[in-house]
Inverse folding.
């Protein structure tokens, strides 16, 4: 089984729109939305939730007002300014608490509990393109990397059970912890870039990240007709860095239309754009070794 992760160094490159199109085109796959801080693949796939699981990570300190004597020691000790007075007792701001446990250990009245921290939820759903694993981290919560790792593990297990050949994931934007958790151990990264100054800069950052982890990476230039010079610059960068450039996708109003209709762009009738995306998906399948027959055909063509 192969795991392909679509990533971008920044938001707004059209990564999710293209991942939705690939989800439409791919066969025998488990779909996974790893952007757990701000998931949006579900807006297009409209999945029907079949199972909801709670996500706990780390611990949080909670003062029991019935046991608190209001001595204020905990507030003096907390380096994160999470504890403040509330009437005759003290209380903890859960958004500031880093879960260091110091106040729990030092409270003379043993008035501070330290339960697992409820950080979010994850879901197993069904959609018109197949099964989807997705999640939502609660606002202000951290540990998104752990939730990403958990989602990937669940998606892989489900794919293995169904004897699917692919887990196709929409990774988080940027290069932070959730992106690293999305990439580690995957088979292929598909970097969705765009021909802008920041797009070029962020491509470099995410390409560095892939290189650091020894991850094979391919590049798609989305919204390609926005700036020809910037496209040429990205292509030159890919050649220099030995990055596998799969091609360009034009900036097309159909992407907006598809978003409004809550569809993948390949579900709309437009032969040229859909054909372009199909070609790119086909190349991704080959690069990932998903379709040995296609690989063989390509090798034969090259030899001819
Ligand atoms: S140290 Fe314990 S008793 Fe003192 S204010 Fe904090 S929670 Fe209350
Ligand atoms: S667990 Fe640590 S960070 Fe949280 S309130 Fe207590 S001392 Fe502050």
């Amino acid at each position: 089984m192969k795991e392909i992760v679509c990533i971008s160094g920044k938001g707004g490159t059209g990564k999710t729109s293209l991942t939705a199109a690939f989800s439409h085109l791919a066969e025998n796959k488990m779909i996974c939305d790893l952007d757990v801080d701000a998931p949006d693949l579900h807006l297009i796939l409209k999945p029907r939730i079949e199972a909801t699981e709670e996500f706990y990570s780390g611990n949080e300190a909670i003062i029991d007002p019935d046991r608190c004597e209001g001595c204020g020691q905990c507030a003096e000790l907390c380096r994160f300014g999470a504890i403040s007075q509330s009437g005759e007792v003290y209380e903890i701001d859960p958004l500031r608490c880093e879960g260091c446990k110091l106040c729990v250990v030092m409270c003379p009245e043993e008035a501070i509990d330290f339960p697992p921290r409820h950080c979010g939820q994850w879901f197993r759903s069904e959609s018109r393109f197949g099964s989807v694993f997705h999640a939502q981290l609660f606002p202000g919560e951290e540990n998104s990397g752990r939730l990403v790792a958990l989602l990937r593990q669940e998606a892989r297990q489900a794919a293995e059970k169904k004897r699917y050949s692919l887990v196709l994931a929409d990774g988080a934007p940027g290069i932070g912890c959730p992106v690293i958790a999305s990439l580690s151990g995957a088979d292929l990264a598909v970097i969705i870039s765009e021909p802008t100054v920041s797009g070029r800069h962020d491509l470099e950052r995410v390409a560095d990240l892939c290189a650091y982890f020894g991850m094979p990476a391919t590049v798609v230039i989305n919204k390609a007709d926005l700036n020809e010079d910037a496209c040429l610059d990205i292509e030159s960068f890919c050649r220099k860095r030995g990055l596998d450039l799969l091609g360009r996708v034009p900036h097309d109003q159909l992407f907006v239309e598809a978003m409004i209709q809550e569809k993948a762009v390949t579900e709309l009738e437009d032969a040229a754009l859909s054909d372009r995306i199909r070609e790119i998906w086909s190349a991704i399948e080959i690069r990932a070794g998903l379709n040995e027959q296609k690989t063989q055909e390509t090798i034969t063509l090259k030899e001819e």
About this structure: The chain has two domains: 2-56+120-303, 61-114. The mean pLDDT is 91. The CA atoms of residues 184 and 206 lie 13 Å apart.
